[in-house]
């Protein structure tokens, strides 16, 4: 049996119905793949390295980082399916400045809290939909748009298909919703 691994990450999570629609799109495009469960659909916005055991001190530091985030709600639209051998993901066809700003807040907060982002991690918003061995593809799809109004901290028990939500913070910055044009 493989050793248990633990990782912590900040995420944006779409509403349940939208997550189910995203997974249905992946099933339609690649029925033989191992698809993500709808309750695990998310866009990672900052992630730690893996640890051989749970790290309560890391979780506590990251909870403080999440509590310090100040951002307005913003609209995002994942409207491009990109697949390569290994996985299929939804991506943004246009950059999201508010999402980039949120990432930079998290990155700065983690550094100040003595926590580092995963080695080699860079801000590249995507939602993994399936794990596969098929051919590469890159195409526009009808967009999956939602108003991002919450940041979540997740403790992932790697290999167990288990995500524990450690913290949730509403995005309630003083400027009101940023409904950007695409």
From TrEMBL:
One GO MF term: ligase activity
Domain of life: Bacteria
InterPro entries recorded: Cyclic_Pdiesterase
Key words, A-Z: Ligase
Gene3D superfamilies for this protein: Cyclic phosphodiesterase
Entry annotated with the keyword Ligase: yes
UniProt name for this protein: 2'-5' RNA ligase
